[in-house]
Amino acid sequence: MPITLSNATTFSSVYVNAGDMYNKGVELLLTGSPIKNQNFGWDVSINMAKNKNMVTALAPGLGTGIDIYYNIEARVGYPLGSIFGSTYQRAPNGQIVYQTENSQTGDSGTPNSVIIAKNSGDNYLGTANPDWSGGITNTFTYKNFSFSFLIDGQFGGQVYEADAVWTNYFGNSKASLLGRDGTYIPNGVVNVGTASNPVYAKNTLPYSAYIQFNDNGNADKIINESNVFSRTFIKFRQVSLGYNIPKSILAKTFIRSATFSLIGRNLFYIKKDLPTFDPEASDSIGNGFGYDSGGSPVSRTYGFNFNINF
Amino acid sequence: MKNIAYKILAFLFVPVIITSCTKNFASINKNPDATTSVSSGSLLSDALVRTSTVDMESRFNYCHAFMQYGYSSFWSGTTYVAADGPASSLWNNFYTPVLTSLDIAIQQTQNDPTQASTYAAARIWRVFIFQKLTDFYGDVPYSQSGLALTEKVYTPAYDAQSAIYASFVTELRASIALLAANSTQTVQGDQFYSGSAAEWKKLGASLLLKVGMRLIKIDPTQAASLAKEAVTDGVMTSNSDMPILQHSAQFANGIYTVVQDGVEHFFLDKTLVSEMQNANDPRLPIYGAIYSAPVSQGGTITDDNPADFVGYSFNSSDPAPTVRINASIFGLQTTPFFDFQYAEVAFLEAEAVVRGYITGDANALYTSGVTQQMQSLALLPTSPTITSTQISAYLTQNPLPTATEDQIARINTEYWLAGFAFDGEDEYANWRRTGYPVLTPNPGSVSQVIPRKMIYPQTEFNLNNANVNAALAQYGGTNTFNTLARVWWDKAN
Questions:
Q1: What is the pTM of this model?
Q2: Which residues in chain A have Cβ-Cβ distances shorter than 8 Å to B24?
Q3: Per the count of CB atoms within 10 A, which of B181, B288, B315, B401 is most buried?
Q4: Across chain A, which distance is largest between two alpha carbons, in Å?
């Protein structure tokens, strides 16, 4: 991979074998025919896959971690393409810490609202790699008709939703509605002590989504952790209905067999954790995997097939 | 349902896959169709052209603002605010691609006696570029720069400026000797002198004079001996010895980009305009003109009478500026670039005489510098000609004074007037070296002090952090304009 160099080397980047990693995985395929007789058949096919990836070493000079795409990093001890960034501040008892703000940047005077306090730094927030993925295909045949459908899904794995950053920033998202009327007082704590010697007291001020997400045109109070979502989903991937034109009809023609089928793909999610956006969208399947800033969602398609054998 | 048959076929695959990259990465990645060698002449030529085609944000945004040549509302330099973009452009453009090409040219020619003059020319130009870098930033990567390919140095250490200057002297001496010994050998890829080794030798000696005269505060003894050595070697003696880069639409003069960039079609500063108006300087209507709007917005010259010019004033109650840099002379793609003016050499030499470093006629050198600087402007687009009558009238009104300190002030004020547009970064160094012209800092700035060392590029803190922080320790420990941020030769009194 190319590593950016200091211009003082008189070169801009160098291609290096950036490090070592391992992949350990299992793939499983089970197929069976629970019912099979002259007129009716039922075939089932189940597949499952699990892969574990880990960066074990990086080239000298790269330190312990390197950004490969925005806040997607290759870091020793973590899977390649893990998400890093700022997190919520939390009190020792796990409660979220809020910080007080004035309603507008630059205002002086008594704080009148709160936002979630940011714990900046490079904290591990997740990886795009799923814990496991799999699918199940069922095919039913009755006389000349066949019907099949595929349901698949993946479990575990995260995505950094830059789409969420900007829909929140522009106030177009559901998340940015919370507290917009100034009446939502979040159940958390504020630090009334000092940074090094914190004393936590219950928060009494209303939450301001505007300062959190936009702050007069400044996105720096947005916390990375709030934009990391689970990619877990179960999807009704494909359905098809087919009809084999009977041989008796074709017997006197030059056509040996003919099949007509209707197909629909990517029909709907049975379940998905990610709000609004498509958990399968990503900037790329390379270094940008796990970072979605306006990646195209997978499109739903309908079609028909007409197969003729001569 | 009795015919129901259960058939379960199970295929169980449990492969464990462990992969790693090949050890022969470099040979696999080699493109068999790619060119693997470039002629040294092409590389030297590339470096010379790109010295003045690159982004000139540092030279204008900072140096022209600091030296009170001009003002743009876009420039951070007017209020002495540190901004990474304009601060880093000189660094980024000189290290890559200019030094990249020079380093490879030097490697290719160093053991080839048939290319000795090309080797010497490339080394001279490397000193020329590195002097601009170290004068601007202080300590910079020098001895470990350019070793990424051969020795895999990806995080080059910073060299002390004193060591860099010592190396300049060694490099220039060796190059001058090589050129003297190979005086008939053509310099390949020469963009200035059609390959003349003799002219390159003059350029090398002139650079040695400039390097030596930088040391007047830190090491006057060495300054004197280097000035003497350079003059003995033979410096430039007229405009015909000047390195001038002829630009084209394809390889446009970098000033063009600045002037075309909206508000960066900058106003002249009141300091410059007043000085030139009071001195009846015939160069003023060449340097500036009153425009209806910036040229990028279709502005045209509405008034070229220098008496009407109003420069930018720090005092906001003064009238608004009207005079911008003359874009039809300095801001064309095809405007030739004066890399190193003969006038600078004449003024350095005159100052060396005044300081007693060398013997000579300071007045003759001063007169020659002013005269030929004014005449050199005729080489620019529209051939603006200053007559010999105008020149002698100017010299009569602005003669070399008699007292030593006044002479140094006068000579370096002329140095400043000569550096407009083409050599802001060199003038910035010359001003720090001599203190002339005396400039009043912008009273509207927070620090009210003209910075004396540029901040390091932010990318160094990401990519070469330990080394840049080690260098920064002597400059106050922070990457800011602060009172401790002065380069080595700029010794505080």
A1: 0.71
A2: none
A3: B288
A4: 93
